[in-house]
Amino acid sequence: MSIQSYCIALNGSSRPHGNTKALLNKISKTLGEPYVSGMPIVDLCTLNITPYDYEGRNQKDDFIPLMERCIGEYSTIVIATPIYWYTVSAYVKIFLDRITDLMTIRRDLKKALEGTKISVIANFAGRNADVIKMVEGHINDLFSHLCDYLKMQYIGSYFIHMSVEQVDEKALRPLFS
Ligand SMILES: Cc1cc2nc3c(=O)[nH]c(=O)nc-3n(C[C@H](O)[C@H](O)[C@H](O)COP(=O)(O)O)c2cc1C
């Protein structure tokens, strides 16, 4: 019998086997079961999810099926992103923009999304602590506002330098609850 976690992780990296995936694997190993075998990691770069279109011409791409999967089965969506140019990756931004589709063409899914939790896991390469603090503040603000607007729950973020070996289990556990 398979065990399932309450979380689904969306890997926003531009490569499926890069540092962000390595971080997610490290986190699930640290948290143990049910995360190791029960938390799906979806590599956004392997899906066909195109930027928001005002005319809804991309309704048949992979976005709606991904949302149906997230909403139906999981209470927490973990957004894992590399920091690219001081913010979330383009894959994450496109994913967020496409949530607009739920306010227009799939309102049923928008309603079902309410109450779902979001957390953010980010990794970066820079060494300037002030810059990282600024980026962290910006990303936390972005998700707080977004979750308020969508009636979702933002439960926080975890930022870590790509070279750090050990992750902080105590800080991470609430973000995967
Ligand atoms: C396009 C691009 C932009 C980046 N911009 C930043 C940045 O602004 N700040 C930073 O600390 N690291 C930056 N990095 C480094 C990445 O955040 C870091 O290498 C990360 O671990 C990459 O994860 P990935 O292998 O999953 O892509 C950038 C990397 C790329 C490819």
TrEMBL record:
<dbReference type="GO" id="GO:0016491">
    <property type="term" value="F:oxidoreductase activity"/>
</dbReference>
<dbReference type="InterPro" id="IPR005025">
    <property type="entry name" value="FMN_Rdtase-like_dom"/>
</dbReference>
<protein>
    <submittedName>
        <fullName>NADPH-dependent FMN reductase</fullName>
    </submittedName>
</protein>
<keyword id="KW-0285">Flavoprotein</keyword>
<keyword id="KW-0288">FMN</keyword>
<dbReference type="InterPro" id="IPR029039">
    <property type="entry name" value="Flavoprotein-like_sf"/>
</dbReference>
<feature type="domain" description="NADPH-dependent FMN reductase-like">
    <location>
        <begin position="8"/>
        <end position="159"/>
    </location>
</feature>
<dbReference type="InterPro" id="IPR051796">
    <property type="entry name" value="ISF_SsuE-like"/>
</dbReference>
<dbReference type="Pfam" id="PF03358">
    <property type="entry name" value="FMN_red"/>
</dbReference>
